[in-house]
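Troubleshooting log. The previous structure file for this entry was overwritten by mistake, so regenerating from the original sequence record. Sequence copied from the archived sheet and checked twice against the printout by T.R.
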Amino acid sequence: MNNDTTEAVYNFIVEYMKGHNGLGPSQREIADACFIVRSGVLRHLDKLEAWGRIVREPGKARNIRLPEPVEPL
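Regenerated output below.
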């Protein structure tokens, strides 16, 4: 798994949340924006969560959040 792609996923999440009042993107939105398959999104999200860069809340749609809030655009 490519760390550059993982970084691109993270950057997309941050920018998306800035433009959507802190709401996280769906896995489909991440896949479409980063040109990866949805199963690949899960692996990148797992990696980002292990690194402490995101937090996921099980059982919730759009369950991605950042440990620190982002400033809206």
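The mean pLDDT is 92. Archived copy saved in two places this time.
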